[in-house]
Amino acid sequence: MRYYRAKSLSNIFKVVVLTLLILFSCCSCFSQGKNVGKLDKSIQELNDQDPKIRKNAAETLGSIKTARAIEALVAALKDKGLFVRRSAADALVIIGTPAVEPLIAALKDKDLFARSGAAAALGRIKDYRAIEPLIATLKDEKYGVRSGAAGALVSIGTPAIEPLVAALKDEKYSVRSESADALGTIKDTRAVEPLIAALEDEHSSVRSGAAGALGKIKDARAVGPLVDALEDEDPSVRIGAADALGSIGTPAVEPLIVALKDKDPSVRSGAADALGSIGTPAVEPLIAALEDEDPSVRSGAAGSLGKIKDARAVEFLIAALKDKDSSVRSEAAAALVSIGTPAVELLVAALKDKDSSVRSGSVGALGKIKDARAVDSLIAALKDEDPSVRSVAADALGKIKDARAVGPLVAALKDKDPSFRSGAKGALVSIGAPAIESLVDALKGKDPFARRHAADALGKIKDARAVGPLVAALKDKDSSFRIGAADALVSIGIPAVELLVAALKDKDLSVRSEAAAALGKIVGPLIAALKDKESSIRSGAADALGKMKDARAVEPLIAALKDEDSSVRSGAADALGKIKNARAIEALVAALKDKDSSVQREATDALRKIVESLVTALKDKDSSVRSEAAAALGKIKDASAVDPLVIALKDKDSSVRIGAAD
Length: 662
What we know:
mainly alpha
């Protein structure tokens, strides 16, 4: 009984197992069939007109990861769509090793995109079989393909070193150049000697590439050859060599110091740049080089110390301000400015040096550093016995812009030296508003130089507070001072108009004359200001032109009636009303329909003023004036003009009668 029961269970177990096997097989076949269908569909979709469908198809083929898709994906590297090409390349990278040979073949394809995409994909797959074909691709006529191949070799890395080294001797310079760049990026020291040899290559791009590569590898063996390369005839090679030496660092310091003595200025310059890049390790040797007998070495050393900005160099750079060579002094001063704040105290102390060149250089440096701690000492330097030091001190104070300097600088306007006076004036202009009161006081002084420079400075500062005192200065007996004051008012512009217009009624003929001349000069800039970007400027210009009542402004003001800003249109209408020119009538009548009520009001008022003016003109002695007035009144159609026009119908002149009748 037990036997039959066990046998029965065994049979049941066999049936279950068999059933599971059949089901698994069916599922597997179904799944495979499903994938096959998906594969074929995606391959077909790579030719779809919609780039999005083509892109998705490439991504799907990458997820399936089958060698059957390789041929279609390689073909898709030629697709017009950038994202389709990228997705195809990504899919080939996912497929990996089976795609290598087809991709190698694609490196020779006629299509640029295919070659470029194949190179990039091979670099990502990193299969050593691609190395030689990629090196061959460095000969490609298209830079993008060559660059892609070089990048791929870099990605492959160490296995590509020996072939790339061999390629440094290729007959085609583009291959040699790209190989040098790739070796530098890989940074394998086995490439150092071959790259040093490449510094002698006949083509400059190869030499430059080799220098750059050696800088990336940073091997001390390259220092000597790179220093020699600083003498290369090609500037790109010299620059590359200098950069490389700077990257190598400390081992390059001594040879670079020696290179500062080279006869070739480009070598000296390159060496100085490299030392500046090396930084702190180069400071002590560079300080020592400031004592070199060769001025080019001293100059280069000073320049390098300025780039490093190490406070240890300050004292020695100040001493270098005494150097006999002007280029050394100049570089030392520039270096001190670069070092900045840490140099201030020693520079202030140097203002008492016996050597005027040291004082002058220190003053100039302090001005560029702009540290307020130097102000009092610079004010004292305004009384230096050397006029050049005084001038530089004035300039320095102008750069710092500290109000404490205003009084001493105004006093300096009386100095006998014209360049110093000019420098003091420039400094006051730079200081600006804080100098206004002192400059206004200087207008009333007795010194002619101080008064003229004060007026000029006030004009350049353009502060409205100066207008009244400058208008008062138009009464001065000194004609050159009056002209200077008038010119200052012209420079101030809009804020000066009202007082200048009032000055036209002054009892003093010279005041009226200068005011009129100034207003005449202001008209042009004000008309130009009607087109300024800022509406407030346009509005202010319109207001000023109205006060001036200059007929030259009529047409520009008429144009301003169409300005996008209502305040400008309103101001233009008001100004035209003040000028009272009949040419504005038609435009003002049109402005009565403006969307803005304030513009309508100003246009109405302007037309009223013009009517009053024209009615008065109907009584003018000149018949042509009466005739034009009558014609203009007819255009306005204002009721207040009827009675005057009726009277004009009796005018002796027929043209007036005809105008009135019309």
